[in-house]
Amino acid sequence: MSYVGPDFDPPQPRRPRRGPLTVAVAALVPGALLGWLVYEAVGGSGGGGGSDRATVRTSPASSAIGTPVSSAAPTSSSPDDGKEPTPTPSSPAASGPLKGKVVVIDPGHNPGNFQHTAEINRKVNIGTNWKECDTTGTSTNGGYTEAQFTLDVSHRLKALLEKLGATVKLTRDTGSPAWGPCVDQRARIGNLAHADAAISIHADGAAAGDRGFHVILPGSVHAGAADTRAIVAPSADLGVRIAGNFVRVTGEPASNYIGDGTGLVTRKDLGGLNLSTVPKVFIECGNMRDSKDAALLTSGAWRQKAAQGISEGIVSFLRAS
User: Fold this and answer.
1) Chain-centre distance of CA 169, in angstroms?
2) pTM of the model
3) Please, which of 64, 83, 247, 282 could form a disulfide with 200 given CB 3.0 to 4.6 Å?
C-alpha cells in the first residue's frame, strides 16, 4: 500500500524497541512467534493509530516515505513463476466447514486509477475527517504494480475460501470498476454483505531496506459516520490470527520499520477501517520498494503462499467466532 492520500497517511515509522512484550498471544500462534507477535493495545502510547506519532502527508502522485510513483499507467505484465489464477465470478458457495460464512476481500487500489486522478482525488468523509477517494498505489522498481499484486492475491484467496464453502465477495475485480472504488464504498461493500470477516490486501512502498509484513487493526473511533467500538476486539482477534499464519506459511518476517517488530499496528486514520461495521483488517504483505521483498511479491509461488497464510488466519477466526 503506497502511503498516499485517503487511507495512507502513515504514522512515522519507528525501529523496533527492545523491552518486555505486552500481551502475548501464545494460544493463537506457534511458540516461535512469541518473540515478536504481540497485541498492540488500542489507545495509549503506540495504540492510537498515529495519535502519538508524526504523520507524513504526500500527494497522490507520491509513494511512501517520499518515494515517487509514476503518474503514467505501467505497461509491464505480471511476473509469475507459478500459474496465474483465472478470475472467478461470484458463485453459490460449496458445502464445507465455512458454509454460511461471508468473507469480503478488498484488493487495494485499481490499475485504472492512473487515468482517473480527478476522480480519485475527490474527498470523501471517513468519519474523523475527509480524505481522497483512493490512490494509485505503489509498484516495484521493475514496474509490477500494487494494484496487480493485490488482485492476484485476492483471486487466490477467494478460491481457497470458496473451496471451504465460504461465500466470498470482492470489492473490485478485473476491469470493474474502471477506477476506485472509493475507500468509503469499499467499507460499505463489506457492511452491506454482513461479512463475518473482511480484509484489505496491500503491499507497502517504503524505503529500500525496510521490509517485512504488518497487519493493521482498527482503533476505537466514534466520530461522525465512524463507530468502530463494536469491531475493535474481533478485528484484533482476526488480525492476530492472520499475522501468525502469514509468517508461518510465507516465512516473511514482521516489519522492521513499523509496529515495533510485532507485525501489528493499530490506526485510526483509515477510512476502510473507520467506516467498517464488520470485523476487518488491512495487511501489508511486504515492501515493494525493497529488492528482497520485491523478489517475493513478484513470485506467483510466493503469492500463493501469501493467500494460503491469510486464508488460514481467516479460517481460524471464523471457526472460533
Assistant:
1) 16
2) 0.76
3) 282
